[in-house]
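ok so i was messing around last nite and threw this chain in just to see what happens. nothing serious, just curious
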Amino acid sequence: MRSSLVLSRRDLDFLLHEWLQVETLTERERFAAHDRDTFDAVIDLAAQIATEHFAPHNRTADENEPHVVDGKVVLVPEVAAALKVFGEAGLTAGTLPESLGGMQLPQVVSKAMTTWFQAANIGSSAYPFLTVANAHLLIAHGSPEQIETYVRPMAEGRWFGTMALSEPQAGSSLADITTKAVLQDDGSYRLTGTKMWISGGDHELSENIVHLVLAKVPGGPAGVKGISLFVVPKSLPEGDGIGERNDVVLAGLNHKMGYRGTTNTLLSFGEGVHTPGGQPGAVGWLVGQENRGLAAMFHMMNEARVGVGLGATALGYTGYLHAVEYAKTRTQGRPPAGKDPAAPPVPIIEHSDVRRMLLAAKSYVEGGLALGLYCALLVDEEETAETDAERARAHTLLEVLTPIAKSWPSQWGLAANDLAIQVHGGYGYTRDFPVEQFYRDNRLNPIHEGTVGIQGLDLLGRKVVAGGGEGLRVLAETIAATTARAAGTEWASFAAEVDTTVARVAEVTATLWSAGDPDVTLANATVYLEAVGHVVVAWLWLEQVLAVGASTGEFYEGKRAAARYFQRYELPRTGPQLDLLASLDRTTLDAQPGWF
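result:
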């Protein structure tokens, strides 16, 4: 039987069961109804639906972008058909509580399931996964009425959800948003303004679209402290269905190099095109408290950041699998020691440089998948661990890992796609093979949900110094527990190198913050992010090979080879980066605009 080119079920089984041992979660009350059989059944179902209903139209959706006809967005019909199968299978409600019709799955199992769809078709999979994150935010911060009104139809797959943060003039600088929300006598708000880059912002794929919108209430504090969060549906709820159209209008579609199956929109709120209740303004309801909207929005943003990282891993992973198959079947050239020009050409995987590229890609995608699933497990720990101390520790570790979980796979999953093209040679950049689309799709992820630079500022400027450096301390302790287990094994040298580098990260972090000037400290935050990200993934490779133990067979030998590659080729990258950071280099800071 041919192995899947979408994702490796064998690797997922290893990560979930041999490494993370997710079945132990069923000892907790929230997950007591589950066992390994139910976890495996969900992933089997996901693999089947992703392979049969999502992967087949991946190229079709890419070649036939969304467009507007008579004010409505038109997509290829296969998108709606696939999403219907997904919703009817109950997968939208995978992690939601049983009281809302959900399966109450652990996040780590749900994310493993999700990755199948992201690898099969990143464009179509975006709709339900934005919806799930939207529902999670409302469950955490919404009122009981909002949960019943909006989460239940989203759980049933009938309504989809979005997040509406950015604006044309503000981009990622949310302090500068100008969308306004004015309180009405009935307790609702009327919103006016424009939102840009809203994925899934308009379409005809669902009965309704639930927008979570950041806006400012007049008279509130300046900057981010004056941001509030509102739920603003495309059509107003009425009874168990929908009523009149809200004043939310599609102002345009953005045409992207990838993710083309996902509509990306410019939305206008309150233009007066529609007048619900006889007056202009989009009707919205406050989620949580006024001026506390950004804190609530981070619930969805952080989930989306881990999701973007997993999507980047998924695209890198499927590209890697396609490259492996191509390398095993494409014959070209002869070994350097071969002296007979009449000898038949060999499969290109026989060439050491091709194996170098495949090992690099393998180390990136399997390391990225471990990172994403580990963060998902931390969400479960944060919510269900037995003691308050364990929950708090999981929260701290997740906080410091989130910018890495978003940005590292976005950089190195893309690098895996680049290598997949290279393995294919000239065929790689043609449309005869799918690896060029995987690359185009993945190139969006270093920008999605906060650019790499923003994640660097978040990690160095906030996460590693919060609570007096608690996040970095907990991360270092967690890594040290792993390296201690590796002492006396064949991986002792790898563990020693990780220990040395972790200690260097702590020293460099202190040096950076001793500068006394935030501009100097943060000038090279992206370099810091990349270096710490490599240390984290080196640790996770050490975790994986310790889980391999003495197991034998090609799968396990592949794990060992990828770990050795990361130890010898990748971890050493951090040395020069940490040297640069320790020098408090001002090259980029001192470069003047006129020099460019």
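not much to say yet. Residues 456-588 form one domain.
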